[in-house]
Fold Sulfatase N-terminal domain-containing protein.
Amino acid sequence: MALTLLFLLNVGLLCSGAASPPNFVLLFADDLGFGDLGCYGHPTSLTPNLDRLAAGGLRFTDFYCTSPVCSPSRASLLTGRYQTRSGIYPGVLYPGSIGGLPLNETTIAEVLKPQGYATAAMGKWHLGFGANGMFLPTNQGFDQYLGIPYSHDMGPCWNLTCFPPDVKCFGLCDVGTVAVPLMYNKVIKEQPVNFLTLEKAYSDFATDFITTSAQKKQPFFLYYPSHHTHYPQYAGAAAAGKSLRGPYGDALLEFDNTIGNLLTTLEKTGVINNTLIFFTSDNGPELMRMSRGGIAGPLKCGKGTTYEGGMREPAIAYWPGVIRRGVTHEIASTLDILPTIANLAGAKLPEVMLDGADMTDILLNQGKSKKETMMFYPTDPSEMYSMFALRLGKYKAHFYTRGATHSGTTPDKDCPVFAVLKAHDPPLLFDLETDPSENYPISATQRPDLQELLKQIQKVKEQFEATMVFGESQISKGTDVNLEPCCNPQCSPKPSCCHC
Ligand SMILES: *[C@@H]1O[C@H](CO)[C@@H](O)[C@H](O)[C@H]1NC(C)=O
Ligand SMILES: *[C@@H]1O[C@H](CO)[C@@H](O)[C@H](O)[C@H]1NC(C)=O
Ligand SMILES: *[C@@H]1O[C@H](CO)[C@@H](O)[C@H](O)[C@H]1NC(C)=O
């Protein structure tokens, strides 16, 4: 009761004070693990601005993404729905993919447009390109877009410069496709992209967008899915060689510098106190890159797996004067961001089955989560296998476990691809409060008191599955080389002639 009152009071203040609804800045890191930030315990990462957000805002310990790989995780973030509904499975989209996030899905940007928001996206889209760029952000509610429409390793990189003065990118990246483009809206500005000036381009774009919106007194939504810290790491002069953590640390520092620039712009334009900044990551660390990948801290395995290391992410909410500093252990996820933003902006929810819950009460009042469950789908979900794991309160039940290529190279033999699919009946059960590392399965057969819990888990699973309608797989529609973005469309031979 007291909580509810406080909650109403807060929202009342928000709505009655400045006429302007809040601005939203959504920061999304790439392949950054639970243990990669200074404020989550990494000893040598240099992230002064993220640490500042964490110190002055709310830091989550139990925040999840919905998929251990990029495209599906992004689909859920922007729609508030599991990727199985929108069809962003199995795996990820490619430069020549025929499919993409269906245009009839409603993104956060589309939720905010009717409220008069200016909307912009910059960075890694990875929700499709398609014929004539039909799946680009400007067709999904964003007024403007600057960025690489997919992963920056999805094109040959062995001859590209990743660090100044001319340190070549590590590895080959994906050969056989066009060089990675930088796009403004639907126009290719550079092909290949210049990694040394890319972050500055983003920073300038964001400064311009925020300044223009603030001058017009227009509420805004900036979505910045960064390429950092995905392989191959890169950084311009301001960050290269400046961290103790090598290429990975420098890439992370470059992202952090941009966050610092964003904060400065929000302060200078006078809108910082009316802006919710939310930071999280798309999936766990790519452990196969060894010291060039991230780390999951105390969590098990990483990218590609449904263990905690693949799915649990750092998350920070910052809003000076509105969100009190603290740490929350409530269960929340990227699915909750759309309903939360909709509530705070006074916007209508899309009339579809949403999986997220409004977490305003967690943010504003350090209240309780409206949901006690989280479903863990593998990279290749199917109706036959359904979810691989389910979290209910402090317990996590694995119905299937499997390692992944992306999680190779650590000593844990459950993580690499050699750990083949294994079914667990009864499910492999962990108490994540006492054992966040999923090291010590609870033997339910020796614990009669847990029989009721197992029944409850089964019931929650079945109830959820009854609501799950798999959307047509967009990724199974395949690829067409002619769809790959090319700055010189009539040239030959492709893909190598797509250089401008
Ligand atoms: C989008 O359209 C497809 C094809 O008609 C349909 O199956 C799907 O349910 C629609 N999705 C939404 C969110 O309306
Ligand atoms: C690599 O870059 C150099 C200098 O820009 C160029 O001369 C060379 O042809 C490039 N090699 C390949 C394989 O693209
Ligand atoms: C934001 O609020 C703080 C605390 O009330 C105040 O000191 C600061 O000047 C405000 N900043 C802006 C840009 O309005």
